[in-house]
Amino acid sequence: MKKISEFKQYNGGIFVTQFTLNGKYIVSGGDERLIRLHNTEKQKLIKTYASPCKEVLDIKITRDNGNIICCGNDTSIYSIDVMTSSILRKYGQHETRINCIEFNNQYNVIASGSFDMKVKLWDLISKSNTPLMSLNQAKDSITSISIEDNQLFTTSMDGFIRVYDLRKGLIISDDIKKPLTSLSIINSTTISLSSIEDSSINIYNRKDINIIHTYNNHFNKKIRINTGISLNKKLIFTGDETGKIYQYNLVNQNYSYLKVSNSIIDCISMNPTKQQIVYGTFDGKIGLLDY
């Protein structure tokens, strides 16, 4: 890994960073109650938006880069027009803060996961504010969501990974027996599951229903820090609470790290077009790495 650049420091922690699909822009947010749009090639701030969801916990960008969808310390998710900064839509029926959001593959539905233990699916085409579906099986806070084809994956602090087959109406629940804070899909049978109980990333085989390897060289005991998978699916990355970014090799189980900050690495995001990572820190910095 090689550090490319670090953007100017902002006031407050950065809780989420997200590349656009073309990899040319980064959207970020945190406890400053602002959302920022940066150009990655010029490392230049393009625009700042007032956050309608107070502290920003997750952000997604529509396929055409026209809208920013955000959630946070609010019971609703919001759609913001990138050009005009106006709020286009508000979707909200959660009871408390929303931790995470995720598009389906067609970008016409978005799922939201909340501290209220529920996952809700919203139609982005319809003008209805009623969710398409509400999934209420979790017994604790929903911490992450991922969608692949017709399958929706969730992790929860109750220790379960749940996989919903939205077409067949089926659910598979696997008890990992420790609070889960993040997931990344590696392939059709393998996912990574992070836990703050033991600072671990657990490589889980869904077919055999077992953990095939655990990485725990990084330190993550207090907050949710997400993971990212490399373009070739052979490396997994995460931040930690000592200012390092770790790279774990899924083939030979080796690892390396790069110290990039004296603060907590709150979040990372993978560039979908090249071998690049953006990270955000608890002391308000955004940086770029090549790997």
Strands, total number: 28
CATH topology: Methylamine Dehydrogenase, Chain H
Provide the residue-averaged pLDDT: 96
> CATH first level: which class?
Mainly Beta
Widest beta sheet: strand line-up: 1-28-27-26
Strand fraction equals over 45%
Largest sheet: 4 strands, antiparallel
Q: Which outline best applies?
A: globular
Structural class: mainly beta
What is the alpha-carbon Rg in Å?
Answer: 18 Å
CATH architecture: 7 Propeller
Helix content: under 10%
Along the chain, the helix and strand elements come as EEEEEEEEEEEEEEEEEEEEEEEEEEEE
N-to-C CA distance: 4 Å
CATH superfamily: YVTN repeat-like/Quinoprotein amine dehydrogenase
What is the tally of helical segments? 0
Pfam families: WD40
Protein name: Mitogen-activated protein kinase organizer, putative
GO molecular function: 2-alkenal reductase [NAD(P)H] activity; kinase activity
WD repeats: 91-124
